[in-house]
Specification:
Length: 208
């Protein structure tokens, strides 16, 4: 037995030309290779994979319409020629039906991968939403910590705050967030230690 094929990395797939990637996808449509299809439906390759699958579906439909039209034309010709031409039409129809079965099988594989792509898009959207939420929370915590430090420094150094300083500090007690399963103000989030060392969530959306 030969060695199993090595699944290309995301970088290797991304470096392929459109024709190379199309050929690779076509050759592996029915292959149960989870790693490969995670790469192909991931954020880096999603748009290219979708364009290729849509193109494959259109190509299948075009060939189906062309062959159906050719068979209808042949049928009309054979009817005009009379009974002697019936054998030629029946052979052509038999070959057409065989190609149709093969074509429909290929089409079902493409449609299955399209459904997989749609599911991946939903999952990627949810992942991106979660990552964006974490980034926003991190940015807010950084800003709150800066305001908190600014207030403490002025109080420690006995500097009289201006009106704009007071308005800035007010945000610490007027803006609330959900942390630790409870609603707290920005100031409380810092005082309770929730935001003492804010860290953004790691963004692995580009790695599969």
């Amino acid at each position: 037995m030969g060695k199993p094929a090595v699944t290309p990395t995301v970088d290797e797939l991304a470096s392929m030309t459109d024709q190379e990637l199309k050929a690779h996808i076509s050759d592996h449509l029915g292959e149960e290779n989870t790693e490969l299809w995670e790469h192909l439906t991931g954020p880096r390759l999603y748009n290219r994979t979708r364009a290729i699958l849509v193109g494959l579906l259109r190509s299948v439909e075009l060939h189906a319409n062309t062959e159906r039209a050719a068979l209808d034309k042949l049928q009309a010709e054979c009817l005009a020629e009379g009974p002697a031409a019936r054998g030629r039409f029946f052979r052509a129809r038999s070959e057409y039906e065989a190609r149709k079965r093969s074509r429909n099988g290929f089409k079902r594989l493409v449609e299955r991968r399209m459904q997989q792509l749609k599911a991946a898009k939903r999952n990627n959207h949810e992942l991106n939403q979660a990552l964006n939420h974490d980034r926003h929370r991190f940015a807010l915590s950084e800003l709150a910590l800066a305001v908190y430090a600014h207030r403490d420094t002025m109080i420690r150094d006995q500097i009289t705050p201006d009106e704009h300083d007071l308005r800035l500090w007010e945000a610490l007690s007027s803006i609330t967030v959900e942390v630790g399963g409870r609603t707290v103000t920005l100031g409380e989030a810092i005082e309770y230690g929730y935001w003492s060392e804010p860290k953004p969530a790691a963004d692995n959306s580009g790695n599969s």
